[in-house]
Structures are given as structure tokens and as C-alpha cells.
Write a structure and sequence with these properties.
Strand content: 5-15%
Strand order of the largest sheet: 3-2-1-4-5-6
Low-confidence stretches: none
Mean pLDDT: 93
Number of helices: 8
Number of strands: 6
Helix content: 40-55%
Radius of gyration: 17 Å
Structural class: alpha/beta
Length: 220
């Protein structure tokens, strides 16, 4: 298939990467360090609650976990601790791509498509994943909310579209924020039902897949 001129934009956590295997333990360690520093961390935060925040901006993540907003200084410190744990975990081999992600991305590239990441994760985290799994060269751009100081994935995707020439683009992700970012920018949206999302988050996606390689079979 000739996909020349197509731009495929992917979320990272819950779409390309099984983040719960890496990020949940990192957040758990970060929360313990926050407690040790005297920060008021609520008791009883579960792994499910932590995983349920992935895909949101870090402002929203901390508000959901802590029950209210925390200071910019505390958030920056906690984000740094968690990023350190995530990068160390990657070096130890923690985390994994979803089934056939590498092969599917390589197929898209071989057919002429351009690939990019648009994520609410931290920039070094995104870069660490693609380097660890040997897929960096497949992407024309890695865009993160933190790296570009964006509060909205809608704006992040808009910037990406302006910077990478294309004639048609697709947004692939597992969260409602991915669907919103795609639709608000006039893109074909593909919901990943195998990721972290609740089913209701993908109801407005143009297409939905239960395995990552199925994106190759869509009539888009």
C-alpha cells in the first residue's frame, strides 16, 4: 500500500507502550519519597488508581492522586523523582511495547507513512522508551506536553501538524484526550481498546482496534 503523505500520530502510554509495567512502580516509589519529605500523600492509593491517571497531563495526574492541586515546587520534585525511577526501570528492562508494535510501525514506514508521537508524558521518558526498544529512527518527531510546555494535547497535536508536512493525518490513542485532540484538529481518529482507557472514552473515535496491528487493516 502506498501511504506517502500520510502522517500517523501515536500516543505513547496505553497505545505503543505498556506503561503500567514501568510507571506504576515508579509512581509508587515517588509517592513514598513524597511522604518521607513530609508531603501530605493520601493513604490507600491503589495501583489501579495510579494506572488510571496515565495519559493525562501531570497537573491532572497529581490532582487526581492527591485530591487537590499541589504546589509547582512539589510537583516538579515529584515529577523528577518519578522520571528518574522510570529511566532506571527502562535500563533494567522493565516495561514492554504492545504486541507487534515495532513490526507494525516499520510496515507503515516502509509503505511511505510518516510517524510521530504526541504524549502527555515527560520528554526524556518518551525518548527513553523509543531508544530502549530500538524504534527511534521510525519517527519524524517526538512531541510531549512537557517538552513543548503545552497544557492541552489538542494544542500539542496542532503544533505537530504545523511542523511535519503531510496531506492526511491520523491520531491513534487510548484516551478520550487522544480522540479529542484528533477530532479538534480534523484528523481521522483510531481508539486503542487494548490500552488503559475505559470503553466510554473511545465512543467518539472514528475507528477502534483491539490489537495494535489491526490499524493496518483499517479503510482510512
Amino acid at each position: 500500500m502506498n501511504r506517502t503523505g500520510q502522517l500517523w500520530i501515536f500516543d505513547m502510554d496505553g497505545t505503543l507502550f505498556q506503561s503500567e509495567l514501568l510507571a506504576v512502580p515508579a509512581f509508587r516509589t515517588g509517592l513514598e519519597r513524597m511522604k518521607a519529605q513530609g508531603m501530605a500523600v493520601p493513604d490507600g492509593i491503589t495501583d489501579e488508581q495510579i494506572a488510571g491517571t496515565f495519559g493525562y497531563t501531570h497537573d491532572v495526574i497529581w490532582e487526581k492522586l492527591m485530591g487537590s492541586r499541589i504546589s509547582a515546587e512539589d510537583q516538579a520534585l515529584a515529577d523528577r523523582w518519578i522520571l528518574e525511577e522510570e529511566l532506571e526501570g527502562l535500563k533494567r528492562g522493565s516495561g514492554a511495547l504492545y504486541d507487534a508494535v515495532s513490526e507494525t510501525l516499520a510496515t507503515l514506514r516502509s509503505e511511505g507513512a510518516l510517524l510521530a508521537v504526541a504524549s502527555n508524558g515527560q520528554q526524556p521518558y518518551i525518548e527513553g522508551i523509543v531508544e530502549q526498544f530500538g524504534i527511534r529512527e521510525l519517527f519524524s518527531g517526538l512531541y510531549s506536553a512537557s517538552g513543548y510546555q503545552m497544557k492541552s494535547k489538542v494544542d500539542l497535536v496542532r503544533l505537530l501538524l504545523e511542523e511535519i508536512p503531510h496531506h492526511k493525518a491520523y491520531m491513534v490513542g487510548d484516551r478520550s484526550s487522544d480522540v479529542e485532540a484528533g477530532r479538534e484538529n480534523g484528523l481521522v481518529t483510531v481508539g486503542c481498546a487494548f490500552g488503559l482507557a475505559l470503553p466510554k472514552e473511545l465512543v467518539h473515535a472514528h475507528h477502534s482496534v483491539t490489537r495494535f496491528p489491526h490499524i493496518l487493516t483499517l479503510s482510512v
